[in-house]
Each structure stands twice: as C-alpha cells, then as structure tokens.
Amino acid sequence: MNPSARRRLTLANSVVGAVVVALDGTVLTVAQPTLRRDLDASFAQVQWTSTGYLIAVASLLVFAGRLGDRYGHQQVFAVGMVGFGAASAGIGLAPDIGWVIGLRVAQGIFGALSQPATLGMLRAAYPPDRLGMPIALRTSAIGLAAAGGPLIGGALVTQLGWRPVFFLNVVPALLMAALALTVRDAPRARGSAAGLDLPGAALLAVALVALVRTLVVLPATGLTTATVLGPVVATAAAAAFVRHERHATSPLVPHGLLGSPTVGAALGTLVCASAALFGTLFVSTYYLQDVLGLDPLQSSLRVLPLAVMMVLGAPVSAVLLRRHGPRRTTGTAMLLLLLGVLLLSRLDRASTDPAIGAGFLLLGAGFVAVMVSATAVVVRCASAGSAGVAGGLQQTAMNIGPTMGVAVATTLVGLAGVAMGPALTVLAALTAIGALSALRLPGRGDAPVAERRPAGHSPGDAAREVRTRR
User: Fold this and answer.
1) What keyword terms does UniProt attach to this protein (predicted)?
2) Torsion of Cα atoms, 180 then 184 then 185 then 186, to 10°
3) Which of helix, strand or coil describes residue 307?
4) What angle do CA 438, 444, 450 make, to 5 degrees?
5) Which one of 41, 80, 87, 182 is separated from 222 by 20 to 30 angstroms, measured CA to CA?
C-alpha cells in the first residue's frame, strides 16, 4: 500500500472510530429513561450504565495507549472495535439491567483500547507539522456525532424502543476493525519496544478510579467517608505512580512526556476547557427547561450553534494553529470560551434567543479551537514510539474534565436552586485558569518537541518520521 493511500485509510479509521464511541455515549443518554422503564430498573442502576463505563475507560486509557505502542495501533484498534461492537450488540439483547451494566463496563474496556489508537495511528502516519488538519477532521466528526446522536437516538427510541439504539454501531465498528487490519503499522526498530509497566498501570488506574468515582457520587451524596477518602486515595496513588515512573527502567509514561511542561500545560488546558464546557451545558439545560420552560427539542435547538461551531470550526482551527502557533491559538480560544460562559451567566427570563445563541456560539468556537490545538501539542510532543501513551493522556484529560465540570455544576446548582450565577462563576474561574495554562504552550516559531528527541525517542522513531515525510 502506498503512503498516500495508507494515510487516507488511517484517517478514515481514526475519524470513524472516534465517531462510533462518541455516538454511543450520546444515544445512551436519550435511551436511558425508556431503558429504565422497560427493565424495571432504579435510577441508581441506570446511572451505573454511565458510571461503570466512565470508570472503566478512564482507568485504562494510558495503559491501552502503551499496548498500541508495543503491539501496533492498528491491531489494538481492531481488537477495541470488535469488542466494542460485540458489547453494544449484547446490550441490545440484554435481559436485565445487570447485564446492561456489565456490558457497559466491557464497552468501556474496549473503548479504552480503541480511543488512544485513533490518535496514535495519526501520529504514526503523519509528520508532526502536518497533524493539525487530521486532528481537526477527527474533532469535526466527534462534534457531528454529538449533534446528531440525540436526534438519531430519539427517533429510534420513539419508533422502535431503546434496544435498536445499541445496534447502530455494530456494523461500522466491525467494518473499521477489518479495514484496520489491512493497514500495517510501520516496523519498529529492534529493541525499541517499550515494556508495559504493569505496576505503573495499576497505580494510575487506582488513582483515576478513586478520582472519577468521587466526582460522580459527590453531588448526590455530599461529604461522606467515601467521598473524603476518595481524593486521599487518588492523591496517594498518583504520588506513588510518579515516584515509580521516575525510577522505572521502562515507565508507562516516558520521562519525556511525564516531565514535559508543554504536555502538562496542554493537558491542564484540556481539563479546564472541557470542565467549563460540560459544566456550563449541564447548568444551561436547567435554565432552558426549568426557567424558560422549553421542551427538550426546543432546548436542543437553542444549543445548536455550539454543535455547528464544533463541526465547522475544527478545520479553521487547524489553519489558525499552523499560522499562529499553539500559544496564541489556544489562549485566544480560552478567552472566547470564557466570554461564552460569562455571557450565559447573565441570562434571565427576559433573555432573547440571539443572546442565548451567541453564548453557545462562543462556547463552541472556543472549545473546538482548544481541542484541536492542545491535542495537536500533546501528540506532537510524543515520539512515534510513544504516540499511544500521548493519545491515552489526551483522552484521560477529556474524560476527567467533563466529569469534574458536571460535578461542580451539580453541587452548586443543588445549593443555589436553579440560579446559574454561582456555578457559572466558578466555571468561568476554571476557564481563566486554563487560559493561564495555555500561556505555557509553545509559540509559532518554537520547534516541535518531538523533533528534539526527548527521552524514549529511539533512532527507529526518527527514521520512521523521515520515511513518513516522503
């Protein structure tokens, strides 16, 4: 297969693979009420169909990325897609809520295998200075899935019930798995394969499980022994993980990524931006439906400018990234996101549709540019041999951020009733922190970190990048 065809097929796999997972999450939200009634499940049990998936996927993303680095991103992606599709079909046939929860956890495991690979395979196929547009196309597709998922899911649930929703992804997942197996990963130099570092993976998983579970249950339970111990366990496990990684001969996260200020700034910016976006969306839903009295469809139409900007703004963001560099692009995007949060915080019963639409337009314009530029920075900073781990770190940030944002919003809305001000003020402050973090990103003239050959960058990686440019 010639390099051009390989790149096109890799891009198609990356885009469709990301869409399959994103679409599944959006249609599940629509299907949950009907699923609960049909299976005679409690609200807590239905919540675990989301929580179980989130805990499984968040705890395994980085380790799954390392599997891709060692055994090949296309192969790991294929396994993830087959498992994800099979688990999705199993949910559609599940006899009770216990099976649904168990299969959602399985989906999380296989989703964790596939998602870092969608970025790792791009890094392996494209040189660092040409990653912006492929990442942008992937982001546009995710935005399209986020916008279309509720509409498709709603139509299927209304006409056929909740079970057909879970068969949506089966055929695309199996097709992408088959196509992935036709694309061979670039050969690795002898001795360049990194170890799996199982102790490091276990420590990181404990830290992430404790953190995610605390964020999920805190709004409902408040301060309890479990919610107080959760952050303590997460902090202790994270500290042990960092200490282990610094002394490991073959660490889970290469030293060039673990200690990189640039990667840390990009991940911090992604966490803050995604927390602000999803927290604001959560609060805004209450405003649109409880304050303005809109139905779900009318509310979705008010939020549509955000989805449009996610789809159309991603390619524009890639062009801006190339022209102005990560620091200016991401910093400006965080300011747009901040303006969107502040504008929505000033809405009341008398607010007009243009004012509401402008707020969501700013949210979408800011977030899509942050996602494209910060993701490109993380992936570029990794050598080709560590691209899966970099993808896992980016995906972990994109799971932790929304969970944190919704937890903050839920807690503050619960304390203040339907008043949006306190929650959005805190989310605006979080956005400002992300804007400050963006100032630590490289400028337009700075050389890509990956080309400086950080720790873990083998001669085989450099040779592979030269071949990729040809």
Assistant:
1) Antibiotic resistance, Membrane, Transmembrane, Transmembrane helix
2) -160
3) helix
4) 85
5) 41
